[in-house]
Amino acid sequence: MSFDADPRRVEAARRVTAAVLERAGVRDRDVVGTVQLLVSEIVTNAIVHGNANSVSFQVTCDTAGEVLIEVDDHSSGRPEVRETCPDDEGGRGMQLVSFFARDWGRKGTCTWCTFTARSS
């Protein structure tokens, strides 16, 4: 899906994520919440730091429970895991992605991450 680079769109991406996971048979609320957190952080990062009027978002979950989140912000910038101080009000998004995602990276203008929703 593509949407305006508007912070109000993050909730729609979270709802789409929950629906995709439910269709894939992922029912664990903690897992769904963690994947939604990853989506929130990457989509918010794209909206705040991207330089386009729109953001493209895709989430897939295969039958083994492997989740792939892809967010294209049409920007040449790269997300960074920043060091933050306890008093900082922001800057922890990619720290969370780095901690919870199995892997993450950047390909072109797309930031992606993976998460295993089921144990094999």
The main β sheet shows up as: 5 strands, antiparallel
Tally of helical segments:
3
Output the structural class.
alpha+beta
**pLDDT < 50 stretches:** none
Determine the fraction of residues in helical runs and give it as a percent range.
Answer: 25-40%
Which word captures the global form?
A: globular
Textual characterization of the structure:
This protein is α+β, with helices and mostly antiparallel strands and 120 residues long. It has 3 helices and 5 strands; from the N terminus they run E-H-H-E-E-H-E-E. A 5-stranded antiparallel β-sheet has the order 1-2-3-5-4. Helix 1 (10-23) packs antiparallel against helix 2 (29-49) and helix 2 (29-49) packs antiparallel against helix 3 (93-100). The longest helix has 21 residues, at 29-49. The protein is globular. The chain starts with a strand and ends with a strand.
